[in-house]
Amino acid sequence: MALIRSAFQDELDGVSRTLVELSKTVAELINDSTKALLGADLQLAEEVISSDDAVDEKQHELDARIIDIIARQQPVASDLRALITALRMSADLERMGDMAHHIAKITRLRYPNCAVPAELTKTFIEIGRVAEAIALKTGAVIETRNTDMAIEVEKDDDAMDQLHRDLISTLLSKESSYGVETAIDLTLVGRYYERYADHAVSVARRVYFLVTGEYFD
Amino acid sequence: MALIRSAFQDELDGVSRTLVELSKTVAELINDSTKALLGADLQLAEEVISSDDAVDEKQHELDARIIDIIARQQPVASDLRALITALRMSADLERMGDMAHHIAKITRLRYPNCAVPAELTKTFIEIGRVAEAIALKTGAVIETRNTDMAIEVEKDDDAMDQLHRDLISTLLSKESSYGVETAIDLTLVGRYYERYADHAVSVARRVYFLVTGEYFD
């Protein structure tokens, strides 16, 4: 029995490892999509767009593995909850990949022009930096189950929300003379980064709940 | 054994019924959020915003019930897959409620003004109509497991995507003189309706897969 239990624990650890890998992959993807966006780099944008399939495949493979573990091991309630939570985390991470993909598609749509006006480059460098950092920290939260770090992810997301609000204010300000096309593009791009960070928060919250049995506000 | 099996079947049917109820609720919510949006109806917008909590609560209750069924019944692989799929459908339906909520928040933000210029009223009536119809059809798909109807949901979503593309074109057209604020608002509102329909398609696809073991394109 101890042996079976230990094999089961190995399987749970394997699931956790794959989630951490996925978080690293989507951190790279958002970093690349930011670079492609700001550099109007079509080749890099195409790479992000095609990499998203690999994320989807990895997620499907992980989900099938998790369901197979549940079916074979008939886990006790607490382990079952951990496995169901892993399914939800994999869905969040997959959506983070989608957001990077959507940003890359706007880069491709505007190529050879740059979707971001020069004076907003700094803003998007910062948005991209926060997004990547949140994804990496979320991976660390999955790996270490550190609840303080999970709360930090929420704080980092507040910074993202502020950057997003500032972006919209800038687009709306009387002094700026952006056309409707730029307003539409950057509203969508801003939304994609914001959602990217939201999904990371969702993962961090799930880990927090698994560890403590409580939600944080 | 036959008796236990039948009680289990009752539980599965109960899950399905709750999913159908949720689909009806989110169909009403999108209908109300469209009415509030076009009529700049603050009270109705507030109702949509507060109703979303009830959807979230219903989803959490359903998810807890599903996980409890899995833990108690230790279902065979096919039933387990159906229950995991139900969890995913409930997440999709909950997100549809969020989209209605987001639309209502834009209505509230612009009150007493209307976020939609008069000449775009017809477009949003149509977008709202398609969204509500998709949600109701998705409920019927869950209830009947009719795979032809599941494919129809995908087709209805093509109509939504076309409406969304037309909206963006209209915002971008040289003849239109919408300001940046309207462009930002309607880009977001359009995106929320589009995502609402995407989640409905996701539910229909999941039912199709459960019934046939295959995905449709």
Short note summarizing the structure:
2 copies of one chain form a homodimer. By secondary structure, chain A is mostly helical.
List the uncertain runs of chain A: none
The top level CATH class name of chain A: Mainly Alpha
Distance between the termini of chain A: 40 Å
Largest sheet of chain A: none
Shape of chain A: elongated
Q: Which protein chains are joined by the largest interface, and how many residues does each one contribute? A: A-B, 23 and 23 residues
> Which percent band covers the strand fraction of chain A?
under 5%
Q: Would you give an account of this structure?
A:
The structure is a homodimer of 217-residue chains. Chain A has 217 residues and is mostly helical. Chain A has a single domain, classed as Phosphate transport system protein phou homolog 2, domain 2 (Methane Monooxygenase Hydroxylase, Chain G, domain 1). Chain A has 6 helices and no strands. The first copy, chain A, has helices spanning 2-39, 42-73, 77-110, 121-144, 147-172, 180-212. The longest helix of chain A is centred in the N-terminal third of the chain and has 38 residues, at 2-39. Chain A is elongated. The interface between A and B is medium-sized, with 23 and 23 residues.
